[in-house]
Design goal:
Blueprint: E1 5-7, E2 21-23, E3 29-37, H1 50-67, E4 75-82, H2 85-90, H3 92-103, E5 109-114, E6 125-133
Parallel strand pairs: 4-5
Antiparallel strand pairs: 1-2, 3-6, 4-6
Helix pairs in contact: 1-3
Length: 138
């Protein structure tokens, strides 16, 4: 269960697969997660497909949050960088299924940005995040 207060103004219509705003609880610790590509611990890409890389990149984001003492439910924001938004859009049902395998029905504030390329050769997606963890000892 999210500790965030979800903020979705009626004037913006109902969001689908994200929330417009996530108000963090007072006193939370902010964790900034660097952009994660879809590679494993040996820094090998999980596969060539967008969906394989997306799921692994999202798992990598959650791994950073867990290493700091949190969980996926502590994610308040995701920025997803893709090299081909058409590839993303064409595979949206599979992307959604991969998302739910990792984060269930927790939908932070999100942005999707198409970029000319990513630093890691062969990477199709990179995800950065902001999480808010409970204060120490709570």
């Amino acid at each position: 269960m999210s500790r965030f207060e979800i903020v979705n103004p009626e004037a913006l219509g109902a969001p689908r697969g994200y929330n417009n705003g996530m108000l963090a609880p007072e006193g939370g610790r902010v964790l900034f997660v660097a952009g994660q590509v879809g590679w494993d611990g040996r820094q090998q890409l999980a596969g060539e497909s967008f969906v394989e890389q997306f799921e692994q990149a999202l798992r990598n984001v959650v791994a950073v949050v867990e290493a700091a003492g949190g969980s996926g439910a502590d994610l308040g924001r995701l920025t997803i960088y893709v090299v081909d938004r058409g590839d993303y859009a064409a595979q949206l049902p599979a992307v959604g299924a991969a998302y739910r395998r990792v984060l269930g029905r927790h939908f932070p504030a999100m942005a999707l940005v198409e970029v000319a390329g990513l630093l890691e050769a062969g990477a199709k997606v990179e995800i950065e995040a902001t999480a808010v963890l409970a204060p120490r000892g709570k």
